[in-house]
Amino acid sequence: MTVSLAMSTLAGNGSLCSGAPHPAISLLKLVSTSPGGPFTPVTGVQTVGARTTFDLDATGRYVVVWITRLPPGGVAHVNEVDAS
Fold this sequence. Notes:
By secondary structure, the chain is mainly beta. It has no helices and 8 strands. A hairpin with a 7-residue loop joins strand 3 and strand 4 (40-41). The model has no long low-confidence stretch (mean pLDDT 75).
């Protein structure tokens, strides 16, 4: 399952934060300068808690949040994604 987002332009060293009420989901983030890609992985797979920060060194405006593992019950929610 993926979610695509258009964000303010990410440039250089920064971070993406995600918040999820189910801490057992795992996410991978990809970034591109074009909405059609290609998208480059900018984080490894991480298990997300109530608020998890992904450090990255990337430039782009378009972010894909790829849910790589669902929690027990098979339902996931990503409540928030922000960039700094």
